[in-house]
Amino acid sequence: PFPCGMAGGFLLEIRRGTQSALLVIRYEAERPSSPVDVSVAADRLEVRSGGSCEAAALPAGVRLAPSSCRGLQRLPGGGLHLRTGLRRPPPHVVFTLRESLKPQKNYVFYCQSCGDIIVKDRKFLRVLPLPSENWSALIEEWCCHPNPFARSTLHPQHDDCFLGDTFFLLNSGKESHKDLEKSECENTRVICKRCKTMVGETVSSDTIKYYVTEVIIRPSEGSFTPTPRSQFIQSMVAQCLVELSSAKSTFRFAVKGDNGKSYILMWLLNSDTLLVESSGSSSSHSVFTLFGDIFMPSSGPVGTWNAVKVLYQPCIKSRNKDLADAWEDDIGVHPLKFPSETCLELLLILSLSTSSLPPSLRCMNSFQVKIFVRKCCCRHVKLCFVFIMCLKTYYFSK
């Protein structure tokens, strides 16, 4: 085990695009009780101090280039930091929301919160992406003739499933009467009968919008497997960010609730990150860990996660109102609509993720912020990781 004052864990942030990595060795004390020796091999990390040694094997597919190590430094409260290159970058893994639904297959929609069946054994003949939410405005801008679709809306037939940025659009059929109920205070909200969680909203008398953060879709022959709420929200939001940034070349997002209020402003920094984290031998919960209660705190395991990194600012209780108003009028900012309760959950997840990072990685300086926030040039912006949870694996050191 590590000597007194050493946590024994590490965080490795790998960038596939630049084939580089940032290694953070964690310890609890302000200064370790004895000199620390850090050894970086292609497939493992070792930390020696006071006659003891702690080693961790890297996951398969991750290989470092030891000769490229540079910039070793100790940061107050943040452990030892070291940058290195990659000998072999991990492969890219791409998963999109559209891959979760395919035509000519039967699916069951479950409430993510309680597992109750929302849509039972539905076979879709067509699974089609909806046009951009501002498609009507684009037609007005680019067409020289009046918009023929100005008063038209797209409604799916019984065998259709339309995919929006953050929702699935389905013909309600009998589900609206049997498995769901409308909120008494707001008749557009669709609520799960069992747990009373909002899962969507009515678009018309025969069309329901289900939010991707509120339902789990499984093939009819499969079974429901519960997923922790925080994992699921992170996974869905991360996939939305990656897909939209790729399809629409936009990297700024305004998270809004179904009540129309802005909750979070987000800037996507990168989506090619692979995080490797070891909790080491520390029993303390004060040392930062990005995996939180999902990551096993016992000695030994190494977890790997595909992740996206974002900058964010909260907008609740009139915070950053001027900034939110500026983004509202900016055509380069893409809105993301979720249930208001989910927006608050997401904000809490972001805050906890930020607090789990080393202090030196929690914010970016005002110069960098100034590049994209012209009215907030002196304010630090919080930094956090949002994980694509469906790609989670665990490895154990020998």
Characteristic terms for this protein:
398 residues, alpha+beta, Immunoglobulin-like, Metal Binding Protein, Guanine Nucleotide Exchange Factor, Chain A, ten-stranded mixed sheet, 23 strands, disordered N terminus, disordered C terminus, ubiquitin conjugating enzyme binding, UBQ-conj_enz_E2-bd_prot, E3 ubiquitin-protein ligase E3D, cyclin binding
Layout of secondary structure:
Elements: E1 10-15, E2 20-25, E3 36-40, E4 44-49, E5 52-57, E6 63-75, E7 79-88, E8 106-111, E9 117-123, E10 126-129, H1 135-142, E11 160-163, E12 167-171, H2 175-178, E13 180-182, E14 189-192, E15 198-204, E16 207-211, E17 215-219, H3 229-248, E18 252-257, E19 262-278, E20 301-314, H4 321-328, E21 333-338, H5 340-356, E22 363-364, H6 366-372, E23 381-396
Parallel strand pairs: 10-11, 18-21
Antiparallel strand pairs: 1-2, 1-19, 2-7, 3-4, 4-5, 6-7, 8-9, 8-17, 11-12, 12-16, 13-14, 14-15, 15-16, 18-19, 19-20, 20-23, 22-23
SSE order: EEEEEEEEEEHEEHEEEEEHEEEHEHEHE
**Which regions are unreliable across 5 or more consecutive residues at pLDDT < 50?**
1-7, 282-288, 295-300, 365-379, 387-398
Please give the alpha-carbon distance between the first and last residues.
14 Å
Number of domains: 3
Strands, count = 23
- Give the integer mean of the pLDDT values: 78
Rg over alpha carbons: 23 Å
Helix proportion range: 10-25%
Global geometry:
elongated
Largest beta-sheet characterization: 10 strands, mixed
Instruction: Please state the structural category.
Output: alpha+beta
Q: Count the helices. How many?
A: 6
Proportion of residues in β-strands: 35-45%
GO cellular component, one term: nucleus
InterPro entries: UBQ-conj_enz_E2-bd_prot
Subunit structure: Interacts with UBE2C/UbcH10 (E2 ubiquitin-conjugating enzyme). In vitro, interacts with cyclin-B.
EC number: 2.3.2.26
